[in-house]
Amino acid sequence: MSAALDTLTGLDKLADVARQVVRDTPAPEPSVITIYPSRNEVNIQPPHTSDPVAALGMLLVWTHRLTGITGTWTHTDDKHLHVSFSGRGPAGVGIRVYGSIPFDFARGYMTLPAGERESVTPDELYRLALAIRKGQ
Q1: Is the N end or the C end of the chain the one with fewer CB atoms within 10 Å?
Q2: What are the tens digits of pLDDT across the range 92-102?
Q3: Residues 6 or more apart from 21 whose CB is under 8 A from it?
Q4: Which domain holds residue 123?
Q5: Reported pTM
Q6: Are residues 58 and 85 in contact, defined by beta-carbon separation less than 8 angstroms?
């Protein structure tokens, strides 16, 4: 068996996991799915929306079945709040879900200087989404 066939086996498994996650997640199809066989990882970017609460909510929906979730949020130099969660999905595959909203929506609810990054939990993201919704 060649190394190419071994790689394809890993790719096939990851494609099956990606298909399963998309099929079983009650959300619109993601706009980007990236498969990394060398890292045993699938990255998912939910579809873009101009509604910041919907954008944050989609991150939560796409991560709700993952285990061992860790997250970060970053105030990017281009004035966005970039959020990334990583965890384990089916068959132990690493899954990372990421997205962003304009930082202006989060301003007043959090202090995070431009260029800085902090850890974040799904609960904290949920509370931020509620605060933004209440303030709209």
Answers
A1: N
A2: 999 999 999 99
A3: 42, 44, 65, 89, 90, 95
A4: 3-135
A5: 0.89
A6: no
